[in-house]
Amino acid sequence: MTRGRFVTLEGGEGVGKSTQIRALAAAIEVRGIEVVATREPGGSTGAEAIRTLLMEGSDDRWDARSEALLFAAARADHVARTIRPALARGAWVLCDRFVDSSRAYQGGGGGLTDADILTLHGVGSEGLLPNRTFLLTVSPAEAARRLAARGGSDRMGSKPADYQARLAARFIEMARAEPDRWQIVDADAPAEQVTAAILEGLAEWL
Ligand code: TMP
Prior knowledge:
54% of the residues lie in helices and 13% in strands. The chain has 206 residues and is α/β, with parallel strands linked by helices.
């Protein structure tokens, strides 16, 4: 049923995912392809409402299970209302984070198993997976510099340093376990080089 391509960018905060989504959208659109650039949590009216619940308030507003369910609910709405319709009409969907963020943050750091997250994804989004996922990695020093430059992080980002380290390790582990879908990109490089590396990883479809 899917004719378009579904591409996601993953990684910690401050790795430049949103900058890359903008650059990629422009580079793909000039080839005459429709692009839907979107993000999670969010990307549809219902999912944006859930995003507000997730991103605002105190650190302990949600326990790990409630939080995982809210992300899965937001994703279900995003998939049903935005992503699947776009793919069905042949558009490319470029998404800033997707289920792999839940696997890393809720499954790797929050006490739920990977199987739990994938079960929620099966129920909510019928298990939709990207055609290709790029993991953007930066050194801890560079991530801290970029985060400071954009004025700190939100509720989800205000977690202790060991949480950030665990999740970086978890992302690498997922990428290595599924090398046909994932590519790891060194995002310490200048933005234009990162865009070029990602486009190279998509060249077979362009
Ligand atoms: P971002 O806008 O910086 O990407 O922030 C989204 C935050 O939400 C980020 O801290 C990662 C977190 N997140 C999860 O914990 N689980 C998820 O499934 C998604 C999509 C994001």
